[in-house]
Amino acid sequence: MVMKKPAPLGLRRRQILVGAGTAAGALAVTRVLGLHHLGPDLPTIPGVVASSPSPTPGGVTTKDWNSPLADPAAQVAQLLRRATFGYTAAQLGDAAKDGFRKTVDRLIETPAADPKDLSGADEATKDKPLNTLALQSWWIDQMIASPTPFAERMTFFWHGHFTSDFRKVTNQTPFIYWQNRTWRSMALTNLRDMLTAVTIDPGMLRYLDLGTSTGKSPNENYSRELMELFSMGVGTFNEDDVRAGAKALAGWREPITAAMATALMDQAVQRGGRARTITPDPVKTGVFEPSRAYVGSVKFLGETRQWDTKAVLDKIAAQDSVAPFITEKVLREFVMPDPPEATVKRIADGFRKSKYDMKTLMRDVFTSPEFTQPTAYRTLIKSPTEFMVHVARALEAPQLSKAIAQAGSGMGQALFDPPEVGGWPSNASWVSSNNVLTRVNFVVASLSGLQKVPAFRDAHQVQLDGIVGAKTADLLNSAQDDSTRWLILLASPEFQLK
Amino acid sequence: MTMMPTLDRLSRRDFLRNGLVFGAGMRGLAAGYAAVPDLFARAVYSAKSAGAMNDRVLVMIQLGGGNDGLQTVLPLRDSKYRDLRPTLSKEADMALPLSNDFGLHQNLKGIKALYDAGKVAIVQGVGYPQPSFSHFDSIRVWETGDPSRRQQNGWLGKTIEKNYDSAGHPLVGCAAGTTSTPGALRDLQATLTVVNDQNAFKFQGNGDSIDKVMGALYTSTPGIYGALFDTAMSTVRDTIAQLRTSATKYTPKAQYSDNQKLVYSSKNQLAAALQLAAELIVTGTGVKILHVTLGGFDTHYTEQTRHADLMAYLDSAVSAFHQDIAAYGMADRVLVATWSEFGRRPQENASGGTDHGTAAPIMLVGDVVKGGLYGEAPNLGKLDVQNNPSFSVDFRAVYQEILQSHLAVDPRDVLSESFPRVPFVKAA
Q1: How far is A16 from chain B (nearest CA, A)?
Q2: DSSP-derived pairing of the beta strands B120-127 and B360-365
Q3: Which string of b and e fits A385-403 if b means at least 16 CB within 10 Å?
Q4: What pLDDT sits at residue B199?
Q5: For position A268, what pLDDT does the model report?
Q6: Looking at CA atoms only, how far is residue B236 from chain A in angstroms?
Q7: CA A292 to CA B157: how far, in whole Å?
Q8: Residue A382 CA: distances (Å) to CA of A137, A427, A438, A496, B46
Q9: Do B180 and A430 touch (CB under 8 A)?
C-alpha cells in the first residue's frame, strides 16, 4: 500500500497515540514487534503480482497486500485460516512443523470426531422442542474445540450448500439436529452418496417439501433446488425437467421418532379420542411409500422412462454440469472469489474422474498452485461464524460459544437460520455498514468479558503473517496494553480476511 | 442558513466547502456530532425550488420468496380460479371487495381502508418477458431492472449514483431491518447504509474512543476489498452521527405491532424496519430511498395460514407506517411500493401450497398515489404451456413511473427502455 507519512492525520493520531507521535518512535517499535510495512520503499517479495488498484469513491487507489505465500509457514497459516476455524499460536506451530502437505493430509484423512449428543435433542417434540440457542452453541463448541476442525469446516460448508432452516423445519422434531450430524458424517464422502443422503434427510424433506409431495400432485420445490442449487446450477435444465423431476421423486414422507409417536398418542387421548397405536420409524431418514409415488413414464433430462429416486440422482450425477458447479463453489469458498474457467475445469475433471470423491476434490483444491499463488492472498472474507470462532480460538476463549451464537443474527449469520434457500452469501456480500459495526462490537464485548487476555506477544505474526497496513501497524505500535492490541488486531480489516 | 447554492446534484461537500456546517472540516475528521443531517436535509428540501430535486421519499418493500398475487388480490367471480385452487379459493369468500371482480385478502384491512380513501394503487399482472422461475435469477432481474441479466448494479443504487451525492451522507439510501446490502441498492459508486437495529447501531464500550480508533484503522486499507471496508466503516461513523441526532426527536405516532404471529420465516421484523424508516424520514436525515424486506412468501405448502399471517404482518406494518408519517405531516411526500420476484402458479399443489409462477400485483401506498386498479389481472383461462398466465404490465413500467413522477429523476439513467406510462402517481 501507499505509505503515507502520518503528518496529514496528525490531529487525529495525536488523540489516539500516546507517546508514539513521531515517525521515528513508531518505526522503532515496529522493529521491536517485527511488523512489515507495505509499500514501494520496501523490497517486494519476488513473483508478487499486485492486482489492479481498486477504485474508491474518492478516487484514491490502494495497492495490494504483499503476499507472504512464498514462505511455507505462511502457506500453512493460510491453510488453517481457510480450512479450519482459525488457530492458537500453538496450533499453528504444530502445523508449521508438519509442513503444508502433511497438514493437508492430516486435515483430510482424519475422520471427523463425533460430537457428544445434545441432551434431549433426539426426544424433541412439540411440548419439548429443541432450544435453538443450545443447538447453535453445541455446534459452535465443536467449531472451537473439535480435534478435527476441517470436518467442522466442511460441515459448515455443506450447511450453507444443502441448507435448511429451523423455522420451517421447526424445533418440534430432532430433524435439524440430525441434519447437522448427517452432514458431518458425510462431509468427506462422495457427492453421489451425499445427494441420496440429502434427498431423504428428514429436515430437507420438510424444508423443501419433498416430504409432502405425491405423484398425484407433485410439489416442485425440491426438484428445482436439487438441480439449481445442489448439483447442476441455474440454466442447465428447463421447467419441464423441474416438473418431471417432481413426479419422479415423489413418494417420501418424514419419519416418526419414538418421542413423536408417544406425544401423538398422548395428544389423541387427551383430546378424548380413541387410543390408537402409532409405530415409530426405526430410521433417521425419510420413509418411501410406493402408494405416494408417481406411476408412469416421464421425460427427465432428455430420457423418458419410469423413474425412482436412485435413477433420478444417477441421471443428475451423469450431467456434465455437476463437477464444474460443485468445484467452482468450493473454489469460491476456499481459494478465490472469482476462479478462472480453466482452473475450474482442471479440478472439476479430476473430481469427476474420482467419481465425485470429496477427499480428492479438497486435496486437489488445497494443493493447487492457485491456492498459494500470491494473488490468492487475502482475497476471501471470513463469514461471521468463521470470524467469531477465529476470535475465540485466537483468544483461547471457548467460553465465548454462547455469545457467538447470540451475535450471529446481528451480523447476518444465525446458524440453522440462513436467509434463503441459497444458503449464506459470501465474500463482499458480508461487508455492510451494519456488519462492520457488529463485528467490532463483538470484539469489544468479547475482550471486555474476559478475565484475562492471552499475552499478545507476536500475535500479529501468528494471526496476520506480520502483513499489516500502515494504519494497523501504527495503532498496534502505539497501543499501551495487550487488550488494546488484541482489539486492534481482531477488529482490523486484516483479520476479517483469510 | 442564508443562501443555498444552486445545485444540479446535491453535494454535501459543497455545503462543507461553503462553510455551511459548523465544526466539521472533512468527514474523516472526528467532527463530533454537529447537526450535519439537519442542515443537509433542509438543503435537500430547499433545493426543490431549483427544480433539480424534490422532497419525495421512496420506501420499497420486498416480499421475499414470491408473493402469491392471486391470494393478495383475489378474483371474486372467476370459476377457473376456484377450479384451479379448490382449497385456497376459499379465501375469496372472505376477501374485501375492491370492485365487482376483485377483492383484497381479508387480512389487508388497513390497506383496504387506505384504498377506500384513494391512497392505494394496485397494478395487476406485473411481470417481464421470458420469466425465470429461479428465486435468485428472478430477484436479480427485479433488483437490476434488467431482464437481460447484463446489469450488475441495483436500480435503486443506480438512481442514487446518478442523482444524489451520497458520499459522506449514507442515509440517502438505507436498507432498514436487515444486515446486508440488498441487491436493489447495490452500486459501487453509491454510498448507502444498512441498519438492522437502530438502538444497537453504535460502538460498544467507550464508544467515542472506539469510533476514532476504527476510523483510523479502516483507512487506506490495501487489497481488493480495501475500499469496501474503508467505505463501510466511514458509513458506520456517519450513520451513528446521524442516528444520534435523529433519535432525539422522534416518538412514533402509531402502534407498530410486531406481535403478529408468523409460523414460517418470521425473522423479518417489517414493523420494526418500517418504524426505523419513519424515524429516518420524519427527523429530516435527508433519506430518499429506503428498502425493507418481509420474507417467507415461498409458500409451497400449507399456504392458506402462512400467507394469511404474512398479509396481516404486511398490513399492520404498512398501516402503522402511513399513520405515523401522516401524523408528522409527511404523507404527501412518501410512496411505499411492494415488489416480489414472481407470483405463483394458479394451480395449487398437494401440499396445500403453490409453486413458482409469473404475473402478480404491485401495491403502491401513499398520499402521492392516484388510487385504483391498473393493469390487467392474469387471465386464468389463457395459461401458457407451463400453466402460468402472461403478464400485462412490465415491472419496469412501474419503476419508470416511480422514478419519473415520484422522485422526478430521469428514468433513462436507470432503465434501458421506455414503457407506456402507468399513471399511478398524482401530478405534483
Answers
A1: 7
A2: antiparallel
A3: bbbbbbbbbbbebeebbeb
A4: 80
A5: 85
A6: 5
A7: 48
A8: 19, 7, 14, 6, 44
A9: yes
The grid coordinates of residue B139 equal 430477484
State how beta strands A298-300 and A303-305 pair: antiparallel
Asked if B337 and B318 count as a contact pair (C-beta separation under 8 A), the reply is: no
pLDDT of residue B377: 96
pLDDT at A63: 67
Residues of chain B neighbouring A54 (CB-CB closer than 8 A):
223-228
Instruction: Name residue A414's amino acid.
Output: A
Question: Do the Cβ atoms of B355 and A220 come within 8 Å?
Answer: yes
CB B77 within 8 A of CB B71: no
CB B292 within 8 A of CB B177: yes
Is residue B102 within a helix (H) or strand (E), and if so which, with residue range?
A: strand B102-104
Spans of chain B, pLDDT less than 70 = 1-53, 246-248, 258-268
Residue B283 neighbours by CB under 8 Å, 6+ apart: B37, B245, B246, B247, B249, B250
**Mean pLDDT across the stretch A303-324?**
98
CA-nearest residue of chain B to A3? B220
d(CA B235, CA A3) in angstroms, rounded, equals 24
ipTM score for this prediction: 0.86
Residues A433, B170: C-beta atoms closer than 8 Å:
yes
Summarised one tens digit per residue, pLDDT across range A285-310 is 999 999 999 999 999 999 999 999 99
Integer Cα distance of B145 and B29 in angstroms: 38
Distances A140 to A83, A144, A399, A487, B145 between C-alpha atoms, Å = 16, 6, 10, 22, 40
Length of chain A: 498
Strand-pair category, A54-55 with A61-62: antiparallel
Cα–Cα distance for residue pair B213/B203, rounded to 1 Å: 11
Give the whole-angstrom CA distance, residue B311 versus residue B107: 6
Q: Given B28, B300, B386, which is nearest A239 (Cβ)? A: B386
pLDDT of residue B248: 65
B221 and A228 in contact by Cβ < 8 A?
no
| Test mutation, A254, A429, A432, chain B, max B CBs within 10 A | A432
Residues in a beta bridge with A178:
none
- Residue labelled with grid coordinates 385478502: B105
Rounded Cα gap, residues A414 and B265, in angstroms: 13
Compute the distance between CA of residue B193 and CA of residue B179 in angstroms, rounded to an integer. Answer: 10
d(CA A258, CA B255): 45
Q: Which residue has the cell 428472478?
A: B138
| Beta pairing partners, B373 | B122
Element containing residue B142 per DSSP (H, E) = helix B135-144
Look up cell 394458479; give the residue.
B346
For residues B280 and B247, the answer to whether their CB atoms sit within 8 Å is no
Backbone φ and ψ of A167, nearest 5°: -65, -45
Q: Which residue among B220, B301, B386 sits closest to A1, beta carbon to beta carbon? A: B220
Chain A positions in Cβ-Cβ contact with residue B239 (cut-off 8 Å): 433
pLDDT tens column, A84-103: 999 999 999 999 999 999 99
CA distance A441 to chain B (A): 6
pLDDT band with cut points at 50, 70 and 90 for residue A158: very high
Question: How far does A197 lie from chain B, in Å, by closest CA?
Answer: 22
For residue A11, the chain B residue with the least C-alpha distance is B29
Nearest CA in chain B to A292: B350
Does A29 score more than 50 pLDDT?
no
Q: CA–CA distance from A233 to each of A298, A365, B358, B410 (Å)?
A: 22, 20, 21, 37
Contact list in B for residue A411 (CB cut-off 8 A) is 179
Q: Which amino acid is at B350?
A: A
Separation between Cα atoms, residue A265 and residue A281, nearest integer Å: 15
Query: CA of A165 to nearest chain B CA: how many angstroms apart?
Result: 9
Minimal-distance CA residue of chain B relative to A435: B179
